[in-house]
User: Fold ThrRS/AlaRS common domain-containing protein from Dendrothele bispora.
Amino acid sequence: MAATAVLLHPTTPPDYHRIISPTLQIPSNPQVSIPVGILACQRDPLLRQINTTVVSCNVSQPAAAPSGKKTKKAVLTPTLPSDPILEVILHDTVIFPEGGGQPTDTGIITTEEGKVWSVVQAKRHGGQGVHYVQVKDGNLESAIQAFTPGSKVIASLDEAGYDRRYDHMSMHTSQHLLSALLETRLNLPTLSWSLTSYPQPCYVEIPRGMSPEEILSIQTEANRLVFEGRKVHIEVEELDRDKERPVEVLESGRAVGRGLPEDYTGGVKRVVIIDGVDKNPCCGTHLPSLHNLQVFLLPHTDALSRSSTTSARLYFLAGPRLIAHTISTHKHLVDTSTILSCGAPLVPERVSQVVEERKKAEKRVGDVETELAKYISRDLLSALSESSEAVFKKHIHRTDDSTNPLGFLSSIASALTAGVLPEMKPHVIILSSSSSVQTSAATTVVLVSGSDDKLVKAAGDALRARLGVKGGGKGQKWSGKFTGVWKESKESATVAGILKEINQ
Ligand SMILES: [Zn+2]
Assistant:
């Protein structure tokens, strides 16, 4: 018999969402929007689609671009397209508006006539979830018509929207698990956390760094709870702001986490519970169990220094992000071991060997260059002492793929200056060096060295005027750069002409 595999969509258990107050009700009137706190995406995080009704629709007035440096949030929120945007409020939705450190969902809305609209962002305004709907064809009038209050629509998470949400849920639920273990096992409160852009590791900020043993023990315990598949559920009741405890503040003055947003007007108090592990107020969407989550902690913490206090970041991965991270790091390792022709475990040793050899090779090249510079300058000095001209003039052109060809030319010039005797004739030497690959963007470095400032300046001025060499100098040295192809018959010939015209 042939094997078959049936892929079942996971579903949220009926006891996931619990209304613990006898008076809190989910509005059933389709003309009223259900407040953020008890939206469908929060009651049933695995639901992908809902039939619902338009409550209101307004044309979005684009906010002024934020000035100054971009906030971390800007990385996560998809940028709004330049098309017109409608701000649509629905009776209910599966598209989560950003909150609790969890970024916005993206999704689609299908209107009555069957047209599919992209929801590029969803935000909480007061207590309401607002869908930012892109009007791709720019026809605002017909878009407003499609979203007439009272009309029936389908709000959905499309494939990309669901993948994005599933990743966010995996990271957010693991953050609750991780923060609870850090708090209860090591007395480390979570000061803040960041759900970074996929596929980067997320992090929690804690008051101090952790040892590798501490990190491993927390990871082991987290994964024991994952293996058990501890259940997660939500409890909601009416919000009584007077009963809310203020956010705890450490001795250092740092607040522990964030309290309920000041501007939240939804009137719902929502608590996320991981059975026997954690109970935390949060508006985010959370997986119904820890099953299959697998938490991986990067085995180090990064120290952070603020003006008066220090803290540390502990990075973590879970769910789809952990798989993406494993695939990419494995690929890096395999690619590197192929380059080094060794097995993966030998990579660190081989890399440090290569680095060490390179350092040695660089030093040797430096030593050899100094030695060679002496020989070249010795030849120049003997030609200088045998010369019968009033001013000894010479051009030497080299082809050199060194990363610092000017350094070598300077070594030659220095060795020459050091060997010049007082009785020797005045001289001016032009040294140039091009790379072996000549293109219109290639650079040739040029160095002028001479026995007096006037000769050097005359040569430098002429190089600038006749060859377009950009540079400058002081005293007996002048250096510059020529851009383009350096030809023996043209550029070197011009240099010869320049030297010929220089007189004392
Ligand atoms: Zn949360």
User: Anything to note?
Assistant: Residues 100-101, 172, 176, 282, 284 surround zinc ion (CB under 6 Å). The domain at 24-60+74-160 is CATH 2.40.30.130 (Elongation Factor Tu (Ef-tu); domain 3). Residues 347-386 form the longest helix (40 residues).
